[in-house]
C-alpha cells in the first residue's frame, strides 16, 4: 500500500549532509518526494512510497549521517498524492 509521510527531523541536522543522506536513503528505497532545511534548524522530508520502504527510510532518518545528532523525528501519515516524480533536495 502506497502512503505519504512527512517527517520533521530535529537536532543538529543542518550543515552535516543530512539532505544528501535523506536523498540517498530515498533513492535506495525507491521513494518519491523531497527534503529541505527549515529556518528553525530542522529538516523536513515529504516522502511517498510503500509502507515497508517508508519504515526503513524512517529508521535511517532517526540516526542520520555521521556528524548529525537526531534528537527527535516527528511523523505525520496520510494518503499518497502521486504528485512527486523522483526525490529531490530543495533549497
Q: What is the CATH architecture annotation?
A: 2-Layer Sandwich
Tell me the radius of gyration: 12 Å
Query: Looking across the biggest beta sheet, what order are the strands in?
Result: 4-1-3-2-5
Proportion in β-strands: 35-45%
Mean pLDDT: 96
Shape: globular
Oligomeric state: single chain
What is the fold named in CATH at topology level? Alpha-Beta Plaits
Ends apart, CA distance between termini: 30 Å
| Number of discrete helical segments | 2
Ranges where pLDDT stays below 50 over 5 or more residues in a row are: none
Q: Tally the structural domains.
A: 1
The CATH class is Alpha Beta
Largest sheet: 5 strands, mixed
Commentary on this structure:
This protein is an alpha+beta fold and 91 residues long. It has a single domain, classed as 2-Layer Sandwich (Alpha-Beta Plaits), CATH 3.30.70.100. 27% of the residues lie in helices and 44% in strands. The chain has helices at residues 18-29, 51-63, and strands at 2-12, 32-37, 43-50, 69-79, 87-90. The chain has a 5-stranded mixed β-sheet with strand order 4-1-3-2-5, with helices on one face. A hairpin with a 5-residue loop joins strand 2 and strand 3 (43-50).
Short structural description:
With 91 residues, this protein is α+β, with helices and mostly antiparallel strands. It has two helices and five strands; from the N terminus they run βαββαββ. A hairpin with a 5-residue loop joins strand 2 and strand 3.
Amino acid at each position: 500500500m502506497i502512503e505519504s509521510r512527512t517527517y520533521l527531523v530535529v537536532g543538529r541536522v543542518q550543515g552535516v549532509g543530512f539532505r544528501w543522506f535523506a536523498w540517498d536513503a530515498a533513492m535506495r528505497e525507491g521513494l518519491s518526494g523531497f527534503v529541505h532545511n527549515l529556518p528553525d534548524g530542522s529538516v523536513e522530508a515529504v516522502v511517498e512510497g510503500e509502507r515497508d520502504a517508508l519504515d526503513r527510510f524512517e529508521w535511517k532518518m532517526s540516526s542520520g549521517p555521521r556528524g548529525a545528532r537526531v534528537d527527535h523525528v516527528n511523523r505525520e501519515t496520510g494518503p499518497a498524492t502521486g504528485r512527486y516524480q523522483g526525490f529531490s533536495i530543495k533549497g
